[in-house]
Amino acid sequence: MQHLRSILKSGLGVLLAVVVASGAALTSILMRLTKRGGVQNFQSIFWNQVAHMIFVLRLTIAVRPKLRRESWKETAVLVVGGILRVAAVVCLCLSYLHVNVQGNTSSVVYGLGPVLTIGLAALITKERPTVVQVVGMIICIGGVTMVGVSMNSKETNNQTVQQQVVTLLYPISASALLTLCWVLLRWLSKRGVPLVTHMFYYSIGGILLLPLAYIVEKPVWSFSPDTWGLLVAQTLACAMQYLSNAAAIHNETAATVQIVKVLTVPLVFVLGFFVLEMVPNVLEICGGIIVT
């Protein structure tokens, strides 16, 4: 009975990771569409975080976890994780909005994800990688390198060197910060910190994005009905992705979840081609296939 329960728990973690991949692909495409409708960068990110907060606060009220029962070390990790997640979300969303081919962002973020997760999980949560995971890590590095070279060569004609570096740094920074956040979440889960507590701390940092939107940009709040509809769909997809990701890592190892999330790459390439008419070149497709 215990063995069956363990199998079902692992299966649930993998299923949730597939939902995360689908949500990430939808979010990246919808953010491009809402940007075309006039929604600005940090304004779009703010709405995503509002959706997270609404879902998490409703869940927190329903479950009523004891937010003060954690040790000082666990509380510090929760706070730091929440701050890191805000920075990670900003980098990820800016990647969605500014990297020309949507699949390139996903190839870098989700290609580096397993590589970084295996290393950080071994150091922080003491989850040792298997031989298969190490081989997959090496393959992912090759695929990400191909995509990075392709991104750099494609942008050379119309971007300065500084802009090219920033374009590459957005997805790389997003991958590193997100990986650290989820490995810390896994560490907290193994110490018995409730899932709702993770979600609460990881979502409240989103309130920082509204003043940031006004400092960096001048957001406009009047949009067409079509843009509002796309914005609602975007926030729901983003919230689904976040909640599923947190639940998946609570039930399965961080490395396994990151490996399954690589499915985001082919989904984004396909959606980007049919919805946004973004055509990747051969090197980008090959890199995405290798990462997957």
From TrEMBL:
InterPro entries: EamA_dom, EmrE-like. Keywords: Membrane, Transmembrane, Transmembrane helix. Coiled coil: none annotated. GO terms for cellular component: membrane. Residues 12-147 form the EamA domain. The chain crosses the membrane at residues 12-33, 45-63, 75-99, 105-124, 131-149, 169-188, 200-216, 259-276. This is EamA domain-containing protein. It comes from Branchiostoma floridae.
